[in-house]
Write a structure and sequence with these properties.
This is Glutaminase. One of its GO terms (molecular function) is glutaminase activity. Belongs to the glutaminase family. It comes from Neotamlana laminarinivorans. The chain is α+β, with helices and mostly antiparallel strands. The chain has one domain: DD-peptidase/beta-lactamase superfamily (Beta-lactamase, 3-Layer(aba) Sandwich), CATH 3.40.710. It is built from 14 helices and seven strands. A hairpin with a 4-residue loop joins β5 and β6. α2 crosses α5. It starts with a helix and ends in a 5-residue tail after the last helix. Bound molecules: 6-diazenyl-5-OXO-L-norleucine. 6-diazenyl-5-OXO-L-norleucine binds next to loops.
């Protein structure tokens, strides 16, 4: 038996003693207010073990981690046709880069770069009756916890400064890959990204991707093959132009957000979430990535 508790504690102690914690995202002004010293980890195993260390119970902005949940809902609603409008290849570029989108005629490289996630948001708006309410309820259902909400101030802050996302949405519209109004799609997208969760809530929400599509309350959301697709996309595209590095160092499907969260999982074994708001140059949590590298190294648990 692995002693997860002491492994997590040693990773935590090493992480909080680091002097270089990266830099908190400032391009969404509301996120700049977060204390860089927060650090939490939460591990949930499929055999029913749960371990939290540090700030695992403080809600934070999940940002791009929400893109995985949006993709899951879109696949639940319209299945494979999602991939007529968004490709499944790593972009090798930052999450907000637009050059490829122009060259590739408005088909985003994957659902996790911003342009791809904006297309997914458009699909959700077209297929949900009350998009913002229905999406939030979906996320709450996934973990059986009603205490999950949008942070309206964060959504507004991004709306006021998200010029590049407006450019992406307009470019998509010009290529006829956006059915709804730019304003409406981005309003949904900014809210989706503003959802706040704790490390423990996130580990519970992602349970279905480690459990053949069955969420924590045993409800089936996705087929085996859909779960395989989403985990493959997390492995190849979840960290943008650092996806190779994450696979190389950590060896798990995972997804980061500029709020400093990372969720990673080993199907049939565990889900682990880290939160450290300081980001590296590629926009991924600096200490979160280091902690996960330590975790898979010390436990010898990864997909490879
Ligand atoms: O659209 C944006 O720029 C943000 N709402 C989300 C970006 C993000 O989290 C990138 N991930 N590391």
């Amino acid at each position: 038996m692995r002693d997860f508790k002491s492994i997590l504690h040693s990773i935590y102690n090493e992480a909080i003693s680091q002097t270089d914690k990266g830099k908190v995202a400032t391009y969404i002004p509301e996120l700049a207010k977060i204390d860089i010293d927060n650090f939490g980890i939460y591990l949930k195993t499929m055999t029913g073990e749960n371990y939290g260390v540090g700030d695992f119970n403080i809600p934070f902005s999940i940002q791009s981690i929400s893109k995985v949940l949006a993709l899951g809902k879109a696949m639940e609603l319209i299945g494979e046709s999602v991939f007529k409008r968004v490709d499944v290849e790593p972009s090798g570029h930052p999450f907000n880069q637009l050059a490829l989108l122009e060259v590739e005629n408005g088909i985003p490289r994957n659902p996790f770069i911003n342009s791809g996630a904006i297309v997914i948001a458009d699909i959700l708006i077209s297929n949900l009756k009350n998009p913002k309410t229905d999406f939030l309820n979906y996320v709450r259902d996934l973990c059986g916890d009603k205490n999950i909400n949008y942070n309206i101030a964060v959504a507004k802050s991004e709306k006021d400064t998200g010029f590049k996302n407006f450019a992406a949405a307009n470019l998509l519209k010009s290529f006829k890959n956006l059915d709804n109004d730019v304003e409406e799609v981005l309003d949904f997208y900014f809210h989706q990204c503003s959802i706040e969760m704790t490390c423990s809530q996130l580990s519970n929400v992602f349970y279905f991707l480690a459990n053949d599509g069955y969420c924590i309350n045993k409800k089936l959301h996705l087929s085996n093959s859909q779960v395989k697709r989403i985990n493959a996309l997390m492995l190849t595209c979840g960290f943008y132009d650092e996806a190779g590095e994450f696979a190389f160092e950590v060896g798990l499907p995972g997804k980061s957000g500029v709020g400093g969260g990372i969720v990673a999982l080993l199907p049939d074994h565990f889900i682990i979430t880290t939160w450290s708001p300081g980001l590296n140059k590629k926009g991924n949590s600096l200490l979160g990535m280091k902690a996960l590298e330590q975790f898979t190294t010390k436990t010898n648990l990864s997909i490879f």
